[in-house]
Design a protein that fits this description.
The chain is of the alpha/beta class and 598 residues long. 62% of the residues lie in helices and 12% in strands. It contains 21 helices and eleven strands. The strands form two sheets. Strands 7-6-8-9-10-11 form a six-stranded parallel β-sheet, with helices on both faces. Strands 1-2-3-5-4 form a five-stranded mixed β-sheet, covered by helices on one side. The termini are far apart. 32% of the residues are buried.
Length: 598
């Protein structure tokens, strides 16, 4: 087996060596009669010097070099003693020695060539110094030519290897570019799919809950039948639309937040705007909805900075903290906060608030803008799922709520219950985190169910959903039984999801509209509270909140002083505003101070 595949340069040297072999044989036949050795011996040695090194060359360069140098060291002085023309043709073999030389044998082969060149034909020096110098210089020149040939061929091979590497890198770069483009398309399609699906589900659920509440206010059978038909048409129509969207096929993109941001920045850098990324903190697990919203904020903020502010440089900082993730975008563009909000960031502000986050925009002398998007890390990924049971007597309402909640990454619908006994069995077996309980459940006897559920597991959080003003007594008694939340069914689906998450974090949930109704009922004397301290019926806790409010403390600072959640403080304020018949903190504090309440 050959040590390497023969190349064009090998064949060139073999042909030249064969030509000089013929020349050596010719001069050997012509002048061999001057030697006492028989002609067959001379011819044999010449053929051996030709064939043996070539055969050993197939085993490797080292065997070849050793054999070539030994044979040259033996034949050069011998053939020189016969005729210097034989030696002059033979030393051409030195070209192959120079060509096939190896770095680790440079010194040894160099010394051997010098000995062969200077000592081999030394017998000619006294009588024919010109011939001696000719053979010596030929030996050195042929070796040098072979070495130069070796360098040229090696350089060519190195260039070819580098070209292959460059082509491979170019191929990988093209593949990466196609992959980035494909991922971007898939990511955008996935985002559009999820937004469309969420929008349809939110619209459907809000519409169904609104119609369900409307049914309680209808007095004639004809109107009730019309509402039922509308609900049926809404149900079937929305199902058809949802199926059409579902046929698009959701494309799961299992990217981390950092990977998604790097892909987005790769796209944005191609727009001519320099984008620099800084990532600090240990990356936390976020829901798919949170990651897509942050990427949407990044795209929108960078696009506005380039389009509206003519920014040339944007620095993006991602801070992963213990309780939240901050996406900070600083640009060198111009404009005001109001312009950026009205141009597209206002809609994202609402989306962030739905997930418990917020958006903040600031600028310095209209030169450079800073956009900060903050999202809370509600819980660890290993325990992000909120187990929910939907309990409503209307099948279409149960189905709508279950469909909406099932689409949330951090929520899981354990069951949709249609009877009280089934609900109690689910509480014993599954221990859900949250129960959405209709005030008309079990023919309006939901209070008994609340008491039974709290006896089974006080940790289960209950949200009572009302559909008419006549349910106020149910709400008050439910609060006394220990429910954690009350809201009307006409609430929007986005607000419903936000309230469920707040409830799971430990906050007391009651909507402002419902609080107003309860306060109005209390004013009319239908419900009295022993903790009233003044004509508005403010409790001690509410007076504390009002006092801190008059000191111009922020909601977060009030929450810290009272050891409450910020959302709970907001709920207290909603009740206070309703009791005092005011709409803002300024009106509340001025009225409280003028009337001597605080």
């Amino acid at each position: 087996m050959l040590a390497w595949r023969l190349k064009w340069n090998d064949w060139v040297l073999y042909i030249i060596r064969t030509i000089f072999l013929i020349s050596v044989l010719y001069f050997a036949e012509k002048y061999g009669t001057n030697s006492s050795a028989p002609m067959w011996l001379i011819f044999g040695l010449i053929l051996v010097s030709y064939a043996v090194p070539l055969l050993l060359l197939q085993l490797g360069k080292k065997p070849y070099l050793i054999s070539e140098l030994i044979l040259l060291a033996l034949l050069v002085p011998y053939l020189t003693s016969i005729n210097h023309l034989l030696t002059g043709n033979l030393v051409m073999y030195c070209m192959m020695v120079g060509f096939y030389n190896e770095r680790k044998m440079y010194m040894g082969s160099g010394i051997a060539i010098l000995l062969i060149a200077f000592a081999g034909p030394v017998v000619l020096l006294p009588e024919a110094p010109v011939s001696y110098l000719s053979i010596t210089s030929s030996c050195l020149i042929y070796t040098a030519l072979g070495f130069v040939f070796h360098i040229l061929v090696s350089s060519k091979e190195e260039i070819e290897k580098r070209n292959v590497i460059i082509q491979e890198q170019y191929r990988l770069l093209e593949q990466h570019a196609r992959q980035v483009e494909q991922n971007s398309i898939l990511k955008e399609r996935d985002r559009i799919f999820n937004e469309l699906q969420h929008s349809i589900s939110h619209t459907y659920t809000t519409l169904v809950l609104g119609l369900e509440s409307l049914k309680q206010e209808i007095s004639t059978e004809r109107e009730a039948n019309m509402v039922e038909r509308i609900m049926d048409v809404t149900h079937s129509g929305l199902n058809e639309v949802k199926q059409a969207v579902q046929d698009l096929g959701p494309l799961e993109l299992n990217f981390t937040l950092s990977e998604m941001i790097h892909l987005a920045i790769d796209e944005l850098n191609s727009t001519g705007c320099e984008v620099i990324l800084r990532f600090s903190g240990e990356e936390r697990d976020l829901s798919k909805e949170q990651k897509l919203l942050l990427i949407r904020c990044l795209h929108e903020a960078v696009s506005l900075a380039k389009r509206e502010g003519n920014a040339a440089h944007i620095q993006i900082t991602v801070k992963c903290l213990d309780t939240n993730v901050e996406l900070i975008l600083q640009d060198d563009g111009h404009g005001t906060e109001e312009e950026r909000l009205s141009s597209g960031l206002e809609s994202l502000q609402g989306r962030l608030q739905d997930l418990g986050g917020h958006l903040q925009i600031s600028s310095f002398l209209n030169q450079g803008m800073t956009v900060t998007c903050t999202l809370p890390i509600i819980m660890d990924q290993a325990n992000t799922t909120i187990g929910i049971v939907v309990a409503d007597s209307e099948p279409i309402v149960r189905e709508a709520l279950a469909a909406l909640l099932s689409m949330q990454d951090d929520m899981q619908v354990i069951a949709a219950s249609s009877s009280g006994s089934e609900l109690l069995e689910l509480c014993r077996a599954e221990h859900p985190d949250v129960i959405l309980l209709s005030s008309e459940y079990e023919e309006g006897d939901c209070l008994a169910l609340i008491g039974a559920i709290k006896e089974i597991s006080p940790e289960i959080k209950i949200i009572v959903m009302t559909s008419s003003d006549s349910d106020q007594h149910v709400v008050m008694e439910a609060i006394q039984l220990g429910v954690e939340g009350c809201m009307e069914k006409v609430i929007s689906s986005r607000e419903l999801l936000s309230k469920i998450r707040s409830l799971y974090r430990g906050e007391m949930i009651i909507t402002q509209q419902l609080a107003k109704q309860l306060v109005q009922s209390a004013k009319e004397g239908s419900l009295r509270d022993d903790d009233k301290k003044n004509e508005y019926g403010l409790t001690e806790r509410e007076l504390e909140v009002l006092q801190y409010l008059s000191e111009n403390l922020k909601y977060k600072e009030i929450a810290e002083r009272l050891f409450l959640a910020e959302g709970t403080v907001r709920n207290y304020l909603s009740v206070i505003y309703s009791k005092m018949n005011v709409t803002s903190r300024t009106e509340a504090t001025e009225k409280a101070q003028s009337e001597g309440i605080i």
